[in-house]
Amino acid sequence: MRLSYPGSPRFAVVPAAYVVLRRDDGQVLMQRRHQTGYLDGHWAIGAAGHVEGGESVLDAARREAREELGVGVDDLVPITVMHRTVGSRRIDQRVDFFFECRHWSGVPERREPDRASELRWVALDALPSPVVPHEQWVLQRWRAGDIPIVSTFGFSTVRRA
């Protein structure tokens, strides 16, 4: 059964979890996207992916860190939640949960070489180029200490809660 509301059909946004591994020296782990079909060649946050059905966003973050980097993460600290769009169609809307992790088990390594061509530790004030745009926005605001708890990206304007 399809539910609808007057003037607007109901839709679902796509949730994703991002894990920023951050060392004591402040550097963060990034990976270069490769053969994914989305912004290949761009640098991205170390581990990220969609939340699967029946999975919490915290479980998704842990799973993505394990699958993509081979590390176990438990101490996830929220950075921000971003509602974003990549187009004008409702299906193009996402909600992204960004977490910082300063303590992990294992040594980060490139576990999906068919999807990431390189891993690199970088300083937040010296990000490689190009970076996935919405992730760059988060990393720059975070570095500046000006990251909102909730934001939007890709709509007519960026808004802060």
Fraction of residues in helices?
10-25%
Unreliably modeled segments = 1-5
Number of helices: 2
- Shape descriptor reads globular
- SSE sequence, one letter per element: EEEEEEHEEEEEHE
**Overall residue-averaged pLDDT value:** 89
How many strand units?
Answer: 12
Strand content of the residues, in percent?
Answer: 35-45%
Which sequence of strands runs across the widest sheet? Answer: 6-3-9-8-12
Estimated structural class: alpha+beta
Q: Span between N and C termini?
A: 34 Å
Largest sheet: 5 strands, mixed
List the helices and strands and how they pair.
Layout: E1 4-5, E2 8-9, E3 14-21, E4 28-33, E5 43-45, E6 47-50, H1 57-69, E7 72-73, E8 76-85, E9 93-101, E10 104-105, E11 116-122, H2 133-144, E12 150-153
Parallel strand pairs: 3-9, 8-12
Antiparallel strand pairs: 1-2, 3-6, 4-5, 4-11, 7-10, 8-9
Explain this structure.
This protein is an alpha+beta fold and 161 residues long. It has helices at residues 57-69, 133-144; strands at 4-5, 8-9, 14-21, 28-33, 43-45, 47-50, 72-73, 76-85, 93-101, 104-105, 116-122, 150-153. It has two helices and twelve strands, in the order ββββββαβββββαβ. The longest helix is centred in the middle third of the chain and has 13 residues, at 57-69. It is globular, with a radius of gyration of 16 Å. It starts with a strand and ends in an 8-residue tail after the last strand. Residues 1-5 have low confidence and may be disordered.
